[in-house]
Write a structure and sequence with these properties.
single chain; 102 residues; two-stranded antiparallel ribbon; 0% helix; 14% strand; rod-shaped
């Protein structure tokens, strides 16, 4: 396992490496590029080979409609409250879509 930092080389004698990512310091969602150069026993370096890795947040957020009155007088406004809704860190909620379904 190795902790990767942008621009810092990680050298191994093995043909594979595990990118060590902790929950407290995750790679940000988006596109990340990794590069490999191999060296032979004569010290000759290969041309770089690159791979594109997409970090995708695929965990669905949780909607919680916490406050909703059960009964309202005709002509009276009321409030719906979704503030207890959440997403897994480091994600954040950016939109609330409200629909009256019947």
């Amino acid at each position: 396992m190795a902790i990767f930092k942008i621009g810092t080389k990680v050298t191994t004698s093995e043909s594979s490496v595990t990118v060590d990512v902790s929950p407290s310091a995750p790679l940000a969602p988006g596109v990340h590029h990794f590069q490999l150069i191999v060296v032979d026993d004569s010290g000759n370096e290969s041309e770089p080979s690159t791979a594109q890795i997409v970090i995708k947040d695929s965990t669905r957020p949780t909607a919680v409609l916490a406050i909703a009155p059960t009964q309202v007088d005709p002509g009276t406004s009321f409030t719906l409250d979704g503030r207890r809704s959440s997403d897994v860190a480091p994600g954040k909620l950016v939109q609330f879509i409200w629909t009256m379904i019947d």
